[in-house]
Specification:
292 residues, alpha+beta, 6-stranded mixed β-sheet, 3-stranded antiparallel β-sheet, 11 strands, disordered N terminus, F-actin_capping_bsu_CS, cytoplasm, F-actin-capping protein subunit beta, actin-binding, CAPZB
């Protein structure tokens, strides 16, 4: 039984800390980088208890495994994350209301709400085509940085089990866009994090878990409507997911297989030695017989 974790350094989101808080913040991130995704929520809770003044920084900087909730109005599942949270309530991208209800809740402006609604429809189709099943939610918000800029997050949660010796596996992909106008084009800055955990005891590999983060940027044209923005971001998400999936398959899974091959011998060392001795003995006897 073997446990293998792949851990990639995550790119933290911007935060505002000072002096001693800087050291505490970086120490917390350093701990998170060394843990499997399934352990992150518990650690974040402990960090927030130890340093309450850094709670907002850690909650917005550390990507955690995605959770799912069913929309009370539409009956559709949606993803819970820091980008649709206000206090202890979460906003459904389908009803645009918080559950449980929240007074004076922060809602996206009408124009971004239109983008959000269209993007949810398109990325639901994307999830069905690429994942067969799963939950996808898209959230848009105003980053309050400059005129014409906006931000959008695409979140995909897929659970699989019972395939090719897999007891259970969870794939969470988190795509966060910052879109900024630059002349006659828009700069699309994408940060993607994949959180993966697998239990595959039938293969000799007990647990494979970890996170992987990459960034990309493209300058692309977009018309006056939201459709062009959704198309541009959709192409970037598709390219990024293909790249990261290929990297995970060729690098991490391949490396884990090589390590297991070096550490584990199904026959056992003693049996291997006996077989080698028997082969040497037979070879010596055949050589002596041929010499007669």
């Amino acid at each position: 039984m073997c446990c293998q974790h792949f851990i990639e350094l995550q790119t933290p989101k911007p935060h505002q800390t000072h002096n001693m808080s800087d050291a505490q913040y970086e120490a917390g991130l350093d701990l998170v980088r060394r843990l499997a995704p399934t352990k992150i929520p518990e650690l974040v809770g402990h960090l927030c208890s130890l340093c309450p003044d850094l709670t907002d920084d850690w909650l917005t900087s550390i990507d955690q495994p995605l959770q799912v909730k069913r929309c009370a109005q539409t009956g559709r599942d949606f993803i819970l994350c820091d980008y649709n949270r206000d206090a202890d309530s979460y906003r459904s991208p389908f009803s645009n209301e918080y559950e449980p209800p929240l007074e004076d809740a922060v809602l996206p402006p009408d124009n971004l709400r239109q983008l959000e609604a269209e993007a949810n429809d398109i990325f639901a189709t994307f999830t069905k085509l690429y994942y067969e099943s799963g939950v996808c939610s898209v959230y848009a918000w105003d980053p309050a940085t400059e005129d014409g800029a906006f931000a959008m997050g695409v979140f995909i949660h897929k659970v699989g089990e019972g395939h090719r010796g897999l007891d259970q596996g969870v794939w969470d992909s988190i795509h966060v866009f910052e879109v900024v106008p630059e002349g006659d084009k828009f700069a699309y800055r994408l940060t993607t994090t994949v959180l993966l955990s697998m239990n595959a005891s039938g293969t000799g590999l007990k647990t494979l878990a970890g996170s992987y983060t990459q960034q990309a940027e493209n300058n692309l044209k977009a018309g006056s409507g939201w459709h062009d923005h959704v198309v541009n971001m959709g192409k970037m998400v598709e390219t990024m997911e293909n790249q990261m999936r290929n990297s995970l398959q060729s690098v991490y899974f391949g490396k884990a297989k090589d390590v297991l091959g070096e550490l584990r011998d199904a026959a056992g060392a003693s049996q291997t030695q006996r077989m080698a001795a028997l082969q040497s003995s037979l070879a010596a006897q055949l050589k002596a017989r041929n010499a007669m």
